[in-house]
Write a structure and sequence with these properties.
With 278 residues, this protein is mainly α. The protein has one domain. Helix content is 61%, strand content 5%. Strands 1-2 form a two-stranded antiparallel ribbon. A hairpin with a 5-residue loop joins strand 1 and strand 2. Helix 2 runs antiparallel to helix 3. The longest helix is centred in the middle third of the chain and has 37 residues. The radius of gyration is 23 Å and the shape is flat. The C terminus is likely disordered.
Length: 278
Amino acid sequence: MPAQKTPYSLHPIEASQLHARRERVFLIFAGLFLGSLTMLNILGITRFIKLASFTTDSGLELTFAVAVGVLPYPITFLCTDFISEFYGRKRANWVVFVGLGLNIWVVFILWLGGVLPGFELTNPETGEIVRDAADRMPLFFEVRSLTFGAVAASMVAYLMAQFCDVYLFHFLKRLTNGKMLWLRNNGSTLISQLVDSIAVIFITYWVGGLAGIIDTDRNTVNQLLLLIITGYAFKLVIALFDTIPFYVGVHYLSTYLQIDPTREHEADGEASQEDHTT
């Protein structure tokens, strides 16, 4: 008998159409996570965005700003929440590990691009690249310097925050028996992003070039705390807002992927759901 036709040909590695569908959705979330992670580390603190500014009664001017690298960061937590919800803690942790490797890869390429010979004007005596009238290096080396520090800071903060997010997500999921979706989505993200906000600002200040941006005429600790509060407030608003797409996504993806999100979907010690075509 001739083989039954399918809407599209399956690759031998794809067990079924349902399996292929699940892997494609996972690839989308993982790709969005890793792409956002790469972008935020390269952008880093190359520019600060002014959110608001006002003067107190005592004449002190307060400016609320966030680094441009913060903009894509909240989406990474939404992606790991989706992966945790449908694919389990182990897959979410693997994505975090791949993100760490990606950080190292970015640093390597930036290092390699800087040590290979180029066309920059150099000092014949010292061999150092000549700076311009504003005492700046060529653009690549300025970005390279900031990215090196940003990646060093973000790798530590990233691991702390992402593993915190994944752990708290599953802790709250078990605690509520898979109910109260809003609690594990918001609770894990808000706490983990607080950890990230504190860690990344202080580490970036020490090793990431933020010290050169801070106004030396004002109290350094107050400026750092203001950056932490501002960055966290931005992430807080985004995290609360992303509850809506998370609820909608879980509702539709549960049917599309044929996965019961109230169950833990880890490889060890669990019965896997039976794949079947639709």
